[in-house]
Design goal:
With 99 residues, the chain is an alpha+beta fold. It has helices spanning 2-20, 38-47, 75-84; strands spanning 23-30, 52-58, 63-69, 89-91. The radius of gyration is 18 Å and the shape is globular.
């Protein structure tokens, strides 16, 4: 019985650890997106933020989907990065009238 409790405790601890330092995905609506170079600049500005894991941009919807380590980055850091590159952004909500 004791061995089983120790095993379960260690297993649950191992499974819970990654959940504490999780990946978060956010969709950003991006302004000032007018040219063919815009997607590249936006993607590079977001990828340069420490903790960013993946960036996918859509020229059609003028959005960027960003997956990041929420212990190293946050939405504010992402929006600041795009704004510094000349492309203000904000979190996009499904159903929002955009662009």
């Amino acid at each position: 019985m004791t061995k089983m409790l120790v095993f379960m405790t260690l297993t649950l601890g191992a499974l819970a650890s990654p959940a504490l330092a999780g990946e978060t995905t956010v969709t950003l609506a991006v302004r000032n997106w007018y040219c063919a170079a815009c997607p590249h600049v936006i993607k590079q500005s977001l990828a340069a933020v420490p903790g960013v894991i993946n960036v996918t941009v859509s020229d059609k919807t003028k959005t960027a989907v960003v997956t990041f380590d929420d212990t190293k980055a946050d939405v504010k850091a992402l929006t600041e990065a795009t704004a510094a590159a000349g492309y203000p952004s904000f979190p996009y909500t499904e159903g929002m009238l955009w662009p």
